[in-house]
Amino acid sequence: MANTYTQLYFHVVFAVKGRANLVSSTWREQLYKYITGIITNKNQKLIIINGMPDHVHLLIGMKPDAKLSDLVRDIKANSSKFINEQKFVRSKFEWQTGFGAFTLGHSQLDTIVAYIKNQEEHHKKKSFREEYLDFLERYEIDFKPEYIFGEN
Length: 152
Description:
Helix content: 25-40%
Strand order of the largest sheet: 2-3-1-4
Structural class: alpha+beta
Distance between the termini: 38 Å
CATH topology: Alpha-Beta Plaits
CATH superfamily: Transposase IS200-like
Shape: globular
Strand content: 15-25%
Number of strands: 4
CATH class: Alpha Beta
């Protein structure tokens, strides 16, 4: 797309199925590198990735010709396959269905990068459930609680 100039940023959050604490610190960095490779191979830019044993945060700079839902689908499908092939967990690993995605402007990047970088400190004060509901409310997203934290 000649003469098209964009800067599209998405803060993406998704959880382990059932919000189980399965992402271990012993292999988390390998997972993050693998996810970085998926995003890079899709010609998008990962700015930061971090999370907790039950969920992951990504800050992605995207080009306008890509679909966010396709990218997240590929990240989740390929990373869960990687986790299972590496036998990082004893049972079958799965990400929970769906994801949260929140747009931001360039002036918000430093704040979100710091937020994602400091997940462990942040979650000493707030659970993933509280964090996620705060995002949905802050961005004024209509939701039904029974679908947010169900097994769907």
